[in-house]
DNA sequence: GCAAGGTC
């Protein structure tokens, strides 16, 4: 029996179909599907893993954070532990009966690592097994058939590069996470984390926040006039969009007479190209514009993919391979009542060539609908994502949109004014993807040389605005630009910043705890506060792949570097502890006290160690409220209209966050507590 | 209870 090991069930199923010509059947082993078939007297079994099967970890004796100095962890031996017992058992069982195995995981760094981990498990039960590697970059009939006739050897170096990443990420993550959590005594539910990807992402947000806080607005002035042409009234602005001196604006203002002259009208037709095909980043950033967090958009997309409604959602590629039958996709979309007409239109106009994006890879096609769904059969959020994917796909087939833009120049007493407008003259792809369509600005019918009447003039005092905060959608894009995280992890990295209490809201606003942690890392562990650590790791991994470096050299150097950082951080322990505690303390403020106006904050009772909300004016002010003893507490700026006390959010693991009035006697309390029933999926 | 990377 030949055993073929794939990275995921989808690949196993499709490869089985191709190699067997559709004669394979499915059996379950330890709940894992295995595809079987026979060919020229040989029996085949194809097994799909669920991604990584092992993870690196510290041996159990180091589990207690308080009993181990974080710095000691740096040079400790790491172990690998199974992630999913069913997968391992199914793999072992199949390996026992096999006389050879073929590793057919994705051909990339993590895929090779997954494959080599599988080889390790296989060898435990069947040491002499012959092992080959099937290298393919797309699951198409021709490529799979060819690949399996030209098997290769495993790429040990590639897997080693993956191991280096695993080890470095765990060592830096564990040591620094424990160190800052222990020094600031933020433990268990409230621990503070540090990581190669999450920390530079947090720093990005914090630096923007500090820029906003430091921002000094510059005043400027605009001149606006109200004009009349025949019956129509309209507004025009002075061409000096920003007068930096008020006097200057006033001088111009004083000169303006009661009549203006249309000096020129320019019309320009602009082409708006349809979007490139959708990859994960585009899916997440578009979904964010529709109000879905990247984490829930990804979750929902995963579910739609599992139900066969959209293609694989984790992809960088933005170029459709020729193997995708675009016309066929449109035909299946006719099964959707909501999209039947649009699909028919595109079929009738024979538009079967999609746009091409800049990122081309062959592992998966861009995200597209694989079946026609109907709105009634999906939840509102599922429909939102399905609709987005489908509309985006249709847009990539449609013709470009045309927008007419107009600028009219008007002279008033020698001063230049303008009005500008635009309108869509051909909808093209915007018809399918109307979410982000800009509204038309229609101008009055004017002619060059025409006179207009000045009805009114006005000086507007304005100020320059600080840079905007990152929205979740923009952050996903920025992370991709900086090389932080991957298509599969960015959404979860962002979610963990919320879970740690580093940020709130969308756009993301850092809390004081997040600012304190970021500032500490910038100051004392610069390395892990910037995207450069990832960039350098990538270079080191390339050298491992080329055989120029060994994994242990790279990890060893990284350990030394961390040790030097930790030596300094240990010396500065008191200062670091104070900085982070100050940040944490500020976030413990729930709001203002109703009685005395001072801060209400989360405190702990001396004797019982139970937490409660008390007034910082104690003992003069004795305002106090009980708190649930479990779960994370976050303040809100809401005040209950019934009892008049502040509301807080309580977050318990695996449950939907619930809001609670501080006053335990509040009449609305029962209803609020009871609202945690409906769904596990919460929006941030 | 640590990270980030796969995948469900």
TrEMBL record:
Keyword annotations from UniProtKB, A to Z: DNA-binding, Isomerase, Magnesium, Metal-binding, Repeat, Topoisomerase, Zinc, Zinc-finger
EC number in record: 5.6.2.1
GO biological process: one example: DNA repair
Region of interest (Interaction with DNA), residue spans: 193-198
Positions marked as site (Interaction with DNA): 52, 165, 169, 314, 500
Claim: Magnesium is one of the keywords in the record: yes
Catalysed reaction equations from the record: ATP-independent breakage of single-stranded DNA, followed by passage and rejoining
Matches recorded under Pfam families: Topoisom_bac, Toprim, Zn_ribbon_Top1
InterPro entries: Topo_IA, Topo_IA_2, Topo_IA_cen, Topo_IA_cen_sub1, Topo_IA_cen_sub2, Topo_IA_cen_sub3, Topo_IA_core_domain, Topo_IA_DNA-bd_dom
Reported cofactor(s): Mg(2+)
List of catalytic residues: 312
Residues covered by the Toprim domain: 1-137
Function: Releases the supercoiling and torsional tension of DNA, which is introduced during the DNA replication and transcription, by transiently cleaving and rejoining one strand of the DNA duplex. Introduces a single-strand break via transesterification at a target site in duplex DNA. The scissile phosphodiester is attacked by the catalytic tyrosine of the enzyme, resulting in the formation of a DNA-(5'-phosphotyrosyl)-enzyme intermediate and the expulsion of a 3'-OH DNA strand. The free DNA strand then undergoes passage around the unbroken strand, thus removing DNA supercoils.
NCBIfam families: PRK07220.1, topA_arch
Protein name: DNA topoisomerase 1
Lineage: Bacteria, Bacillati, Actinomycetota, Actinomycetota incertae sedis, Candidatus Hakubellales
The gene coding this protein: topA
């Amino acid at each position: 029996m030949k055993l073929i090991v794939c990275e995921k069930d989808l690949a196993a199923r499709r490869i089985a179909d191709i190699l067997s010509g559709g004669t394979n059947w499915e059996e379950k082993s330890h709940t894992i599907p295995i595809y079987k078939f026979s060919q020229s007297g040989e029996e085949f079994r194809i097994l799909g893993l669920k991604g990584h099967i092992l993870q690196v970890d510290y041996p159990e004796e180091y589990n207690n954070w308080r009993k181990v100095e974080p710095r000691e962890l740096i040079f400790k031996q790491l172990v690998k532990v199974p992630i999913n017992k069913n997968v391992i058992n199914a793999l072992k069982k199949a390996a026992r009966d096999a006389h050879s195995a073929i590793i057919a995981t994705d051909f990339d760094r993590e895929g090779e690592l997954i494959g080599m981990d599988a080889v390790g498990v296989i060898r435990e039960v069947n040491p002499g097994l012959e092992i080959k590697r099937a290298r393919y970059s797309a699951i198409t009939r021709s490529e799979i058939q060819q690949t399996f006739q030209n098997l290769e050897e495993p790429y040990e170096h590639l897997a080693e590069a993956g191991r280096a990443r695993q080890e470095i990420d765990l060592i830096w993550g564990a040591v620094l996470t424990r160190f800052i959590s222990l020094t600031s005594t933020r433990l268990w539910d409230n621990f503070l984390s540090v990581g190669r990807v999450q920390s530079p992402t947090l720093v990005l947000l914090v630096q923007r926040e500090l820029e906003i806080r430091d921002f000094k607005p510059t005043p400027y002035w605009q001149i606006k006039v109200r004009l009349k042409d025949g019956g129509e009234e309209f507004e025009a602005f002075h061409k000096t969009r920003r007068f930096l001196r008020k006097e200057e604006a006033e001088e111009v203002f004083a000169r303006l007479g009661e009549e203006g002259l249309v000096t020129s009208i320019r019309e320009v037709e602009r082409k708006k190209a349809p979007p490139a095909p959708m990859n994960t980043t585009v899916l997440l950033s578009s979904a964010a514009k529709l109000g879905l967090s990247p984490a829930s958009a990804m979750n929902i997309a995963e579910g739609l993919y599992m139900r066969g409604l959209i293609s694989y959602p984790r992809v960088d590629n933005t170029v459709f391979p020729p193997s995708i039958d675009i016309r066929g996709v449109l035909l299946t979309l006719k099964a959707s009542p909501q999209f039947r007409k649009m699909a028919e239109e595109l079929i009738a106009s024979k538009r079967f060539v999609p746009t091409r994006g800049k990122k081309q890879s062959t592992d998966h096609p861009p995200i597209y609908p694989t079946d026609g769904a109907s709105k009634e059969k999906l939840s509102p959020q599922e429909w939102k994502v399905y609709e987005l994917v489908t509309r985006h796909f249709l847009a990539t087939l449609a013709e470009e949109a045309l927008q007419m833009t107009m600028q009219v120049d008007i002279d008033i007493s020698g001063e230049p004014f303008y009005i500008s407008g635009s309108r869509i003259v051909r909808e093209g792809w915007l018809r399918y993807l109307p979410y982000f369509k800009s509204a038309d600005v229609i101008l009055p019918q004017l002619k060059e040389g025409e006179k207009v009447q000045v009805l009114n003039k006005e000086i507007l005092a304005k100020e320059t605005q600080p840079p905007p905060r990152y929205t979740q959608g923009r952050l996903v894009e920025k992370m991709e630009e900086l090389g932080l995280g991957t298509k599969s992890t960015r959404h979860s990295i962002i979610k963990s910043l919320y879970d740690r209490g580093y940020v709130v809201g969308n756009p993301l606003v850092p809390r004081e705890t997040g600012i304190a942690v970021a500032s500490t890392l910038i100051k004392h562990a610069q390395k892990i506060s910037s995207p450069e650590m990832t960039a350098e790791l990538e270079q080191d991994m390339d050298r491992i792949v080329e055989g120029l470096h060994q994994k242990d050299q790279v990890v060893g150097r990284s350990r030394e570097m961390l040790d030097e950082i930790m030596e300094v951080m240990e010396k500065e322990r008191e200062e670091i502890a104070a900085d982070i505690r100050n940040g944490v303390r500020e976030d413990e403020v729930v709001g203002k006290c109703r009685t005395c106006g001072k801060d209400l904050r989360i405190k702990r009772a001396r004797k019982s160690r139970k937490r409660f909300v008390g007034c910082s004016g104690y003992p003069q002010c004795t305002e106090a409220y009980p708190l649930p003893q479990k779960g994370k507490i976050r303040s809100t700026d809401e005040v209950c209209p019934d009892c008049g006390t502040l509301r807080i959010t309580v977050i318990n693991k695996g449950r939907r966050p619930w809001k609670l009035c501080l006053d335990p006697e509040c009449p609305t309390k029962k209803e609020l507590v009871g609202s945690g029933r409906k769904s596990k999926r919460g929006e941030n």
